[in-house]
Each structure stands twice: as C-alpha cells, then as structure tokens.
UniProtKB/TrEMBL annotation:
<dbReference type="Pfam" id="PF13620">
    <property type="entry name" value="CarboxypepD_reg"/>
</dbReference>
<dbReference type="InterPro" id="IPR012910">
    <property type="entry name" value="Plug_dom"/>
</dbReference>
<keyword id="KW-0472">Membrane</keyword>
<dbReference type="GO" id="GO:0015891">
    <property type="term" value="P:siderophore transport"/>
</dbReference>
<keyword id="KW-0675">Receptor</keyword>
<dbReference type="Pfam" id="PF07715">
    <property type="entry name" value="Plug"/>
</dbReference>
<keyword id="KW-0798">TonB box</keyword>
<keyword id="KW-0406">Ion transport</keyword>
<protein>
    <submittedName>
        <fullName>TonB-dependent receptor</fullName>
    </submittedName>
</protein>
<keyword id="KW-1134">Transmembrane beta strand</keyword>
<keyword id="KW-0410">Iron transport</keyword>
<comment type="similarity">
    <text>Belongs to the TonB-dependent receptor family.</text>
</comment>
<keyword id="KW-0732">Signal</keyword>
<keyword id="KW-0998">Cell outer membrane</keyword>
<feature type="domain" description="TonB-dependent receptor plug">
    <location>
        <begin position="131"/>
        <end position="226"/>
    </location>
</feature>
<keyword id="KW-0408">Iron</keyword>
<dbReference type="GO" id="GO:0015344">
    <property type="term" value="F:siderophore uptake transmembrane transporter activity"/>
</dbReference>
Length: 794
C-alpha cells in the first residue's frame, strides 16, 4: 500500500468542513500609535482556532462555519474581546488596539518583541532584558533573510564572539563561543556527543538561542563558553502552510514544505509536517551532497492548563569530499586555486543519518506554578570512506634519486564509521511566591542522560593509486581495483572497541531569585549537583565516577523599565570522555565565569542592545595527541578567556531592521605541562569579530514589500588550528560582503542574495609545525555565490 496516499487524507480530513465555508474573519492589530503589531496571536473561541498577525498586523480566519464566536488577542495590553454571530458566507472585520506598548512582568513594565522573549525550553519565563546573562535569539525571519540553510552556514555571524569552525560541515558543525567549543542543545536538552549530532537543517528549526557562559542554572554538563539551543518547529495552533523552492550556485536545488493542520473538530489535536529535499555541489571538485528531512510533530491540548507534544525527525545526508577538501601547499596559504581537492569521482559518498524523537508535557498548576517534563532520543550514525593526503608524504623539492617531483603526494583511505546515541530526560518546575515585601521566583529540576559512542576511523596502510601532484592534479584515473575492500563483517562495537565509550549523568538544580523594591532589584542564588559515570577503553574499562556542586550567584538592577545592569558568577562541571596517552581516562573539566553587563531596549522595545564584560577559566583542556597517537588525547592545565561583547538586534522603524555585533576575545592557554603551549591562542578564536546585517523594506506605496539587504562578516587576528606559537595569527583577515533584494506581496515572496560579493579568497588553516606537519594546510570557504528563493504561504 502507498503510505502517502493513506497518510495525507487522514491529516487533511478534519479541515474539510471549514474549507467548504466561504465565511471569513479579518482585521488588524495595532498599537496606540496605529502602527501594526506582527507575530501577535489572535484566538477564536478560546483556542478553537488561532492565527498570528503578519508584518502589517493583519490577521485572517478563512472558511469559518456559521455560529457564535468570541475573538481575543493573546496580549496583556489588549484585554478587550469581541463577541459576534457569523452567518453563512458572511465576512466580519474587527481591529484591536494595544493600549500601551509594554510587556508586563510582575510589577515592572518592560518592552519586548520576539527577539527578547526566549523559548520555554530555556526555562526562564522572563524577558531577556531582565535575565542576568548574555543570551541572543536568532528568529526565523533573520534565518530566511540570510537564506541560511543549515547550522554550518554562517549562523554564528548573528552573535558576538561566536565562530563557525569549517571542518566536516556536510555531516556535523563546530561552533566556538568565547574560544571554547559550544555545546549543542535541542529543545533545551544537551545532545552533544563525541560524534554528532548531525548538523541541523533549517527546515525543522524555528529559532536558535545562543547562551554565553556556563549557564549551569539552566543546563548542566555544558561547555564554559556557552551553548546554542536549537528550537524545533512544532504545532502552534494555527492552520497554515508554506512551500519554498531554492536555486543557487554550485548546482543547488532545494525544496521545502511546512504544513500545519487541526486534526480534531474541537481544536485540541494539531499536526505539523515539515519536508525537505536538497542536492548541491561545491566550488571544489568532486564535493557534493544530497539530503532529505522528514519531520512530523503533534500537539494535544488536553485542557487550558495541560498540553502534550510529540515530535520525530529523520535526517539523512549523503556527501562526498570528507578530508579530501583540505588543501596542502609548500610556499604558503592560498597557493592553489580554491577548486582544488584530493578527492576523485570514483569515491562513493559517505552516508550519515539521524533519528530524533522528542516528547514534552506542560502543566500549569495555577497562575504561579508550572511543571514541564520532556525526553529526547537521538541516534546519529555515519558509514563511509574518505580519500585523503597521507601525513607528511608531500615532496618539498624535486628528488632525482626517487624520481619524485615537488608537490607529489601519496593518497590513502580512512574509514568513516561512527555511532552516537543519546537518551535524555528532564523534569523542571518554575514558580513564584512572596514573603512579606519580597517576591521569590523558583527554578528547580532534574536532568538525566545516557550517551554512547563508538567509531572506526581506521586508516588503511597502502597507497591509493599513482602519486598525485598538487601542482598538476589528475582526476578520474582511479579504479575500484585501486581501492581496497574493507571488512565490515565485524560489528562496529567490535571494530571500534578502542573508541567505545558509555557515559551517563544525573543532575539536580535549584535557584531562588529574590526580588526587592517592587522587583527592581533582583538577587539570585542557586546550585547544581551533578553525578557522572563512564566506561571506556581507558583505565582498562573500569567504571569512573565523578561528582560536583557548581554554584551560581547573580544580581540585576532595573534602573528604568528599559535599562538594566547585572553581575554574574557561574561555574560549570563537564565530564570528558577520551583516552589519554598514558592509557588513563580524561579528567572532568571545570569552568568559572565572572560577568557584568548592561542591557537596553529602544524604540518601544523593538531594538535591544547588550554590552558584556567577562572573565572565564577552564581547567583540564582536552586536545588531540596528534598524528602519531591516533584516537588519543592530551590534557592541558588551564586556559583563560576574557573579553568584551556588544550586540544590537531589532527594528528601528517599520522600514529598517538592523543587527550589529562586535567582540574582543583574548583566549589562551595559561598553564600546561608543555611550556611551549603556554600563551597559545585557543582554537576557534579571533581577537576581533564584527558582523552586521541591515534590511530596508518599503512599507507603503506601489513598491510596498520591496526590500534591500546588506551585511558583512569580519574577523581579524585569527588563530590557526592547531596553533603554532611562532605564528599566532593567520596572515589574512576574514571578510565577506553580502547583498540581497526581496519582494513580498500577498502570499508570495521572492528573495535573491549574493554572498561574498567581492569574491575574496577566505580560508582557515594551519602553519608548518602544527602537529609536526612539514607544509601549510587550509580549507577555503565559498567564493562569490548566489541563492534565489521563491516562497508561497497559504
């Protein structure tokens, strides 16, 4: 039986009755100055149907059956409701006016927009203006404007002090915050692993939240620099749909669909389906990938106070290139053209795939207390092979004795088989009560997780095919007979026994924020207790247990309803997996963060600015032991990261939206058993990072909906990786200039974007001497390229 023929009628049938009626309800939601309010929820009959206003404040309910209705807006400053009787094939228009432009938080008025309200998965329940931490929200509109398709495509440009590490970006993504690897969360649950999770495709992402610093009060076991939280798309209670087609440079073809429907007549059961398929090449030869995503999710509103959400994501990606994308040179960086690769058309794609299952239960006991329970299961797997240049096989000068020419390289094959599984569970409660004139906000919960990792990164000893020359590359001469067959008859757990690691943790956290002077002064204190257990090939497979208590203290002052200052001290404990050179297990890492900052909103809350100063330390740094010790690690003593961050994000009028950030980051090793490493910059670090994105949209007239975008990325004094002390910085700064134009009218939107307009040769890389390499190595990033996107909403 064709499952699709059965599934879609089931999903769509409950909406047939509404579709048969031509009655509709329309209107606008505006503020007291008659300016439209976007992304405001309008509710029909206490949740029977819900819609959100568009950029012009317009809302619409189509195909509504005749009957009696109550219309209201989910906004504390719009208390008025509208009751009416709708006749068959009738149309009713009603506008709502917001009395003020303020968002009520207890007794303090604080303006807000979607960029200043975090998702519920961060557990805060607060406007970011009064949260004592640097947290930045990247919403769906910004992702769409920049045509970011995956988390590996410049997502970090929107947040100060964050860099994307160009490595195996077709499979996974590396993001560094304040000089340290960022932990990867999905829906508030830590899914980071030794391998995986796979990079997120934006087809199932609603927003991305970057949290700087240890953030122990929210999530345990995360990196001290911070984490990024992927909030997936789930039913929001409005019938809608969107389809998109994207074409672009390097043979990019991509199609997506996002449909949400009410699945029960009483409006309590909702379903949402996201689909994506893409195929693209690269500016490098024989580098391409194809991917698809299937993401159904369901929400059941059991009552006004209780709802349940269930979600499944299947993501599969086949890619070619792997480690062959690294370019080697003798005389310096950028010596070879950007299209160079060590790959060959005969190499089969590597296949990676991932299953995700998430479930959430929310219950409000009353207006003051709620409880949330959620679970997640992630299984990331990869199988394939990678053609690469063998370690230090490059010939530096002509050798008449051996007959090898300058630039000759031997190529080899490595096996790319890995499996990472994670099971996570969380229960947390948030509430408030008063003791006299002091208001208390409580956050408490338990986090548990179990993760398993096994991999086979075996390197086959023989050379693959004839000698390859970087100055005169010849492709297409390899045959299948040149590539040895690898025996996968043994299980991955047996083949990868030396990498096999099982790790589990249990954490309890509690925080009380006491509020004084009508909530204008807030003092918070909390702690997290964490217990971990791990087994691996290290320490002869013995079980290793560790425990830690990490405190958090903060103070926040609301100087005005739109201006706050804060101070924060936070610690983190992170268990580390890996086998050291001496055969023992890696010790846990501890981090400490001291931070002060100021926050301000402008233009009735539509624009927010953050200025942050921080000092961060991390102990027991874990780094690869190098080529001579495959799969083994070394542990450094201590590193320090200190810096200044500035973020500006929002709208300054209905025509202009603007994002700007700057970060000064001084992150280096301060203690180590090897004196040569002391003073070396941390990987993923750039002393100066600045980014901007500005968009102007014509809001009135014949050209209404026409928009123009401009943005840049700039990084100066970038650390090479691995770091070589006598060459602390790469010789070239990183810079891209991007421009775009878009047009939106009714349900259609057309967007055209050009990235790296100046066609600058950008790259990341390492100097000779790193891990005893005798040559330069680098990865080039995209040259000038374009993307064209056509979107239709219904």
């Amino acid at each position: 039986m064709n499952k699709n023929r059965f599934l879609f009628p089931v999903l769509l049938f409950p909406t047939i009755m509404w579709a048969q009626s031509t009655s509709q309800i329309t209107g606008k939601v505006v503020n007291s100055q008659k300016e439209p309010l976007s992304e405001v929820k309008v509710i029909l009959n206490n949740g029977e149907a819900e819609v959100y206003t568009d950029d012009n404040g317009f809302y619409q309910f189509k195909g509504v059956p005749a009957g009696n209705y109550i219309l209201k807006v989910d906004d504390p400053d719009i208390k008025k409701t509208y009751s009416f009787t709708l006749k068959e094939n009738d149309s009713i228009a009603y506008d709502f006016v917001q009395i003020s432009n303020t968002y009520q938080i207890v007794a303090v008025n604080v303006t807000a927009n979607r960029k200043t309200i975090p998702s519920s998965t961060l557990r805060l329940g607060e406007n970011l203006l009064v949260t004592p931490q640097n947290i930045q929200v990247i919403d769906q509109r910004l992702l769409s404007d920049q045509q970011i398709l995956t988390t590996a495509e410049g997502l970090s440009r929107n947040v100060s002090g964050v860099r994307t590490i160009t490595h195996q970006e077709e499979g996974s993504v590396g993001i560094a915050v304040r000089g340290f690897s960022a932990s990867n969360l999905r829906n508030g649950m830590d899914v980071s692993g030794s391998f995986g999770p796979l990079r997120e495709d934006m087809s199932f992402v609603d927003r991305v939240e970057f949290v700087k610093g240890p953030a122990g009060f929210m999530m345990g076991n995360t990196q001290p620099g911070g984490f990024y939280n992927i909030v997936t798309k789930k039913p929001v209670g409005r019938e809608k749909g969107n389809v998109q087609l994207t074409l672009g440079s390097f043979n990019l073809y991509r199609a997506t669909a996002d449909v949400e429907k009410k699945l029960s007549k009483d409006g309590k059961f909702w379903g949402r389906l996201n689909l994506m398929g893409t195929k693209s090449g690269s500016f490098q030869q024989y580098v391409e990938h194809e991917q698809y995503v299937i993401n159904p999710s369901f929400k059941y509103v059991a009552s006004e106070n209780t709802n349940v959400t269930l979600e499944y994501i299947l993501s599969q990606n086949n890619f070619q290139g792997g480690f062959a994308k690294y370019v080697y040179g003798i005389d310096g960086f950028k010596e070879l053209k950007r299209s160079f690769t060590f790959s060959d058309p005969i190499i089969d794609p590597t296949r990676s795939w991932e299953h995700n299952v998430y479930g959430t239960i929310n219950h409000n006991f009353n207006d003051n207390w709620l409880i949330t329970g959620q679970f997640g299961y992630i299984r990331s797997q990869m199988q394939g092979e990678s053609l690469y240049a063998k370690y230090n096989s490059i010939t530096l000068a002509d050798n008449p004795v051996t007959g090898r020419k300058r630039g000759d390289v031997d190529r080899g094959i490595s096996i790319n088989d890995a499996l990472n599984t994670s099971m996570i569970g969380q229960v947390f409660t948030r509430g408030k009560f008063s003791t006299g004139n002091i208001n208390h906000n409580i956050l408490a919960g338990i986090d548990m997780g179990k993760k398993s990792y096994v991999a086979d990164w075996s390197v086959l000893p023989q050379n693959i095919g004839p000698v390859f020359n970087i100055y005169n590359p010849v492709y297409g001469h390899l045959r299948k007979s040149d590539i040895p067959e690898y025996d996968r008859s043994k299980s991955l757990r047996e083949r990868g026994a030396n990498y096999l690691t099982d790790y589990s943790y249990t954490s309890f956290h509690l925080q009380d924020e006491a509020r004084f002077l009508e909530d204008k002064l807030r003092v918070a204190a909390g702690f997290r207790y964490t217990s971990t257990s791990k087994t691996s090939a290290a320490d002869k497979g013995a079980e290793i247990k560790n425990t830690a208590v990490t405190p958090r203290v903060s103070i926040t002052g609301l100087l005005t309803p739109t201006f706050t200052v804060y101070g924060l001290y936070d610690e983190t404990f992170q268990e580390q997996t890996g086998k050291l050179i001496n055969g023992s297990s890696a010790d846990p890492s501890f981090g400490k963060n001291t931070e002060v900052g100021v926050k301000k909103t402008w233009f009735n809350g539509q624009l927010m600015t953050n200025l942050t100063f921080y000092h961060l330390t991390k102990t027991n740094m874990l780094t690869s032991a190098g080529i001579d010790f495959p799969g083994l690690f070394e542990q450094s003593g201590k590193s320090v990261s200190k810096g200044i961050e500035f973020d500006l994000n929002g709208n300054i009028s209905k025509n202009w939206s603007i994002l700007f950030n700057y970060a000064y980051t001084d992150a280096k090793v301060t203690e180590d058993n090897d004196p040569k490493k002391i003073g070396g910059m941390l990987y993923g670090t750039a002393k100066h990072i600045s980014n901007a994105w500005i968009k102007y949209t014509i809001a009135k007239g014949d050209l209404e909906g026409l928009g123009f975008s401009f943005g840049y990325e700039y990084q100066a004094k970038r650390a090479a990786w691995p770091v070589v002390l006598d060459h602390p910085y790469l010789p070239d700064d990183y810079f891209t200039l991007d421009v775009g134009v878009s047009y939106k009218r009714d349900n259609y939107q057309l967007s055209f974007l050009v990235n790296n307009l100046t066609d600058r040769y950008n790259y990341v890389g390492f100097y000779p001497g790193a891990w005893a390499y005798t040559h330069y190595g680098w990865r080039a990033t995209n040259p000038v390229n374009f993307r064209l996107n056509l979107s239709y909403s219904f």
